[in-house]
């Protein structure tokens, strides 16, 4: 059942994202609007578009959420594997399961470390530039 739902969700998500699908939806709205005078702009005429769009929106929310959940999990698994095989800290694996405040704390620590690293690199570059200015250059004869 899960594989069937995944296949259907993938297919519908793909089709929903195509430009012809958008064009068909626009055509449906134009036809509905053009039919207004024929139905005297009745409550039933309005109910048709309201009901149709509500049902489609309701179903699409679940399909989009399913697709985003799978995409997010796949990306997270790929990132975890990159962390695992690199020199990065393995403690970052699985942080998506922490609370928002815990993740924010880790992010702050990473940003502070990045600033310290940038300052260190800038200091080394400045030192190198000063050293190069002081060293006399040989001139070609």
Please outline what is shown here.
The protein is mainly alpha-helical.
Rough outline: elongated
Termini separation: 82 Å
Number of DSSP strand runs:
0
Number of helices: 4
The proportion of residues forming helix, as a percent range, comes to over 70%
Describe the structure.
With 141 residues, the protein is an all-alpha fold. The chain is built from 4 helices and no strands. Helix 1 packs across helix 3. The longest helix has 43 residues, at 43-85. The protein is elongated and about 90 Å long. 0% of the residues are buried.
List keywords for this structure.
141 residues, single chain, mainly alpha, 4 helices
What is the topological layout?
Layout (H helix, E strand, L loop, with lengths): L1 H15 L2 H16 L8 H43 L14 H35 L7
Helix pairs in contact: 1-3
């Amino acid at each position: 059942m899960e594989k069937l739902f995944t296949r259907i969700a993938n297919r519908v998500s793909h089709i929903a994202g195509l430009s012809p699908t958008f064009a068909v939806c626009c055509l449906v709205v134009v036809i509905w609007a053009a039919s207004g005078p024929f139905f005297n702009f009745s409550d039933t005429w309005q109910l048709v578009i309201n009901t149709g769009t509500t049902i489609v929106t309701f179903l699409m929310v679940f399909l989009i959420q399913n697709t985003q959940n799978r995409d997010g999990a796949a990306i997270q698994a790929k990132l975890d594997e990159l962390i695992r095989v690199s020199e990065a800290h393995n403690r970052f694996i699985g942080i998506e399961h922490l609370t928002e405040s815990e993740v924010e704390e880790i992010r702050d620590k990473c940003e502070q470390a990045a600033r310290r690293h940038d300052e260190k690199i800038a200091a080394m570059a400045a030192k190198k530039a000063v050293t190069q200015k002081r060293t006399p250059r040989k001139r070609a004869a």
